[in-house]
Design goal:
Spore Coat Polysaccharide Biosynthesis Protein SpsA, Chain A; binds uridine-diphosphate-N-acetylglucosamine; binds calcium ion; 16-stranded parallel sheet; UDP N-Acetylglucosamine Acyltransferase, domain 1
Length: 459
């Protein structure tokens, strides 16, 4: 049976107090609209139409996805008006209509709703829930026999309706295309100037057609209207994501303080300590340990990697068995090999480090190509910037760079060469050579005593 989907995402989102369209606000690294799109995908809809209006171009650009079609609601005249604009895009069959601001909805609940809708041959079905602690939702009206007779928006409900009607509208509807003809009958609400989609419920019911509301878990249809709602929704998503990875064999030591974005993946037997952030399109291998204070964004971390305390890794790759940190910063476009050691206070930017290379302490490595089995001594700096341009440093396999050296790029250190500690290297060092650049040491014996005598004489 054919299903089309319409996602209403044109609204202003006034209550967010934001310059950005509401549906683009992110929860765990993903716009809330994307969650809704992902939830409908398993239903294999023949079309997914997104109604855009406020910040239309921005929403379209961000959702760049060939499976979606966009229709523009030029004037934001309410949810009823939004659906009538999408109508021309729809094929005959069932139409699933959702608000774009309900990121917690699941495919399972949507499938259940569709199944009940079909089983009962309804013209319209929608999700409702009972939660005394929330406000701002439409209230479902039923008659004495329990038949749905309408929906009244919270702000227009009388105190009697508020007292009697505890069932709230979830904003998720299934309608047969025949029901869409009733959209024309929705009248503009005089106090708000909007056409309420919810009015279709009273109209269809009044016409004697089959309409039913089905209860679902309140959590799933939390609509995000304010930043406080966004926070509440994010808290629920956080738990969902971490529980999923625990179920797949990942240990979390402080799950309440770890933040794992929806698009992250984590391998089995990895241990994640408290206060850690795994963000964006990050993938963490098996048997890794991620210690407190680490933040890893858009990076690929191989198996058996240790990321020690207070380390930031961005848009980079880290090979199997490598250890990074504590207090290290791996900046974008770095590719770090296997069994590498990157230690305390090391910053790496746009560099490649070969297998088994070590930079254990206090270094800056930028725009460098470093081979395997290289030892970078404490305090080594690649001087890659002359104030205008960036230059590359090449360090070939097996090189030993003594502590406190500066490598003034562009420069190449050949295979198996040694750079003695404290060097300022301005010229290429050939393979197998030793380069020393330091002032010769002079030693003055008994200097301290002599100095003291001079001082005493002066007194
Ligand atoms: C809506 C329902 C309410 C329900 C609640 C569930 C109406 C009139 N009310 O209220 O009964 O309990 O959702 O979360 O439908 N939008 C457009 N074009 C418009 C106006 C809105 O596309 O002209 C979109 C918004 O971007 C949003 C969705 O429709 O994604 C819902 O709009 P919103 O203003 O959030 O409605 P609520 O007041 O939450
Ligand atoms: Ca809403």
């Amino acid at each position: 049976m054919n299903i089309s989907v319409v996602i209403l995402a044109a609204g202003r989102g006034k209550r967010m107090k934001s310059g950005m369209p509401k549906v683009l606000h992110e929860a765990l690294g993903m716009p809330m609209l994307q969650y809704v799109i992902d939830a409908v995908r398993p239903l294999k809809p023949s079309r997914t139409v997104v109604v855009i209006g406020n910040g239309a171009d921005e929403v379209k650009r961000r959702m760049d996805d060939d499976s979606l079609s966009f229709v523009l609601q030029k004037e934001l005249l309410g949810t009823g008006n939004a659906l009538s604009i999408a109508k021309k895009e729809l094929k005959k069959g069932a139409v699933l209509v959702l608000n774009g601001d309900c990121p917690l909805i699941t495919a399972r609940t949507l499938k259940n709703l569709l199944a009940k809708h079909r089983r009962n041959k309804n013209l319209v079905s929608f999700l409702s829930f009972i939660d005394d602690s929330v406000t701002g939702y439409g209230r479902v009206l039923r008659d004495g026999s329990g038949k749905v007779t309408g929906i009244v928006e919270d702000k227009h409900a009388t105190s009697g309706e508020k007292r009697r009607c505890k069932e709230l509208n979830g904003g998720v509807y299934v309608m047969e295309t025949a029901a869409l003809d009733y959209l024309r009958r929705i009248k503009k609400n005089l106090s708000s100037g909007e056409y309420y989609l919810t009015d279709i419920v009273g109209i269809v019911s009044g016409a004697g057609k089959r309409i039913e509301a089905y209860n679902c878990p309140p959590e799933e249809i939390s609509g995000v209207n304010t930043r406080a709602h966004l926070y509440q929704v994010t808290e629920i998503l956080k738990k969902r994501v971490i529980t999923k990875w625990m179920d797949k064999g990942v240990t979390f030591i402080g799950p309440d303080t770890s933040v794992v974005h929806t698009s992250v993946s984590i391998g089995r037997d990895t241990v994640v300590y408290p206060n850690t952030y795994l963000e964006g399109k990050t993938s963490i291998g098996k048997h890794c340990v991620i210690y407190p204070g680490a933040r890893i964004r858009d990076s690929i971390i191989g198996d058996g990697v240790t990321v020690k305390d207070s380390t930031l890794i961005e848009e980079s790759r880290v090979g199997r068995g490598t250890s990074v940190g504590p207090f290290a910063h791996v900046r974008p476009l770095s590719v770090i090999g296997c069994n590498v050691k990157i230690g305390n206070f090391v910053e790496i930017k746009k560099s490649r480090l070969g297998d088994s290379t070590k930079a254990s302490h206090l270094s800056y490595i930028g725009d460098a190509h470093i081979g395997s089995n290289v030892n970078i001594g404490a305090g080594t700096i690649t001087c890659n910037y002359d104030g205008k341009n960036k230059f590359e440093t090449r360090i070939e396999t097996g090189v030993f760079i003594g502590s406190d050296s500066q490598l003034i790029a562009p420069v190449t250190i050949g295979k198996d060469a040694y750079v003695a500690a404290g060097a300022t290297i301005t010229k290429n060092v050939p393979s197998g050579a030793l380069a020393i650049s330091r002032a010769k040491q002079k030693t003055f014996e008994n200097w301290t005593k002599k100095r003291q005598r001079k001082v005493n004489k002066r007194k």
